[in-house]
Amino acid sequence: MATAEVLPEAQALHWRPRVDAARLRRQGRLWTVSAAFHVVPFVGTAVLLMWVQPLALPVALACIAHAWVIPELYAQRGANVLRPRRRTGDGPERRSLGLLGDLVDHEARELHARTGLVLEPGRLGTWLVGEAGAVLLHGRRGRAYCYCVKVDAGHAGAAELPSGDRIAHLLLALRADEQGFATVANLSFAGARWRVRRRMRSDMRPALDAARRPLDAASSAAA
Amino acid sequence: MSKLIRMDHTGHSTVAEWAPDDPAAVEAAVAAFRAELDRGYLAMVSTGPGHAEQVRELPVDAHLVILRLPIAGG
């Protein structure tokens, strides 16, 4: 059996550094710094305005609103990677879900039936795989890394795939080469899990809670 | 009976079926496998819970071989 350890899609992106735990931490810190650069100037301006001229309250409030909205927009972009896509016919949907069900265990199957997401433990953390993206919970605090990744639209038939097949494509690639998967995917957001959770559809939130449990258990064991 | 399936718009299609001790069926499956790879599909086999492997030649002894399309960042 001829095997390839590195995902071919990742090999094609030779200029991208391969994602590992250290790189994830660095990316997480960069996102935190970037969020601070967006928030602090607006909050600072609001405080300064109120100090100089209390009548500038409306402008100060607008600044505070900006400071609140910008991180929320980023979190929304992150949560969007898990949004379900357009459904195909009932027959193909059922067949694709049957195949996906064969690839995962009973618990993951049950969670997918409730939330539309597949929970997959990995070496980098716990993954939630959707139809056009995945969220990785990484580190002791379970920072959320939201990745936009899907079946390459340049191939004929990619757009007509039913939902189960879209997830199965991502799941198989993730299982073959987790780091390569994260390298191919585009990072849409990295930040606090609660920010992403709040922006997820309510029926999908239990999947994020389930993904969090192994991390919480590991933290408790370490304490 | 081993199966080579392709994920497509129908959910999935069976491209080939073979028994390892049936040389004619194996030969047909190998030909179908190569044709799908030439079309840009990637072949995967599960290698245990949470693990999969890409294969470039048909693993005749595998129970199930799945053909998938490449993925890309969105």
Notes on the structure:
The complex is a heterodimer of chains A (223) and B (74). Chain A is of the alpha+beta class and 223 residues long. Chain A has helices at 8-12, 21-52, 57-79, 90-103, 106-115, 163-176, 178-184, 193-199, 205-222; strands spanning 3-4, 118-121, 126-129, 133-138, 143-151, 186-191. Chain A has a five-stranded antiparallel sheet, sandwiched between helices. In chain A, helix 2 packs antiparallel against helix 3 (57-79). Chain B is globular. In chain B, strands 2-1-5-3-4 form a five-stranded mixed sheet, with helices on one face. The A-B interface holds A 1-4, 7-9, 81, 88, 91-96, 98-99, 102-103, 105, 120-122, 132-133, 147-155, 157-158, 160-162, 164-165, 168-170, 172-173, 175-176, 181, 184-186 and B 5, 7-12, 40, 42, 44-46, 49-57, 59, 62, 64, 66, 68-74. Strand 1 (3-4) of chain A pairs antiparallel with strand 4 of chain B, so a sheet runs across the interface.
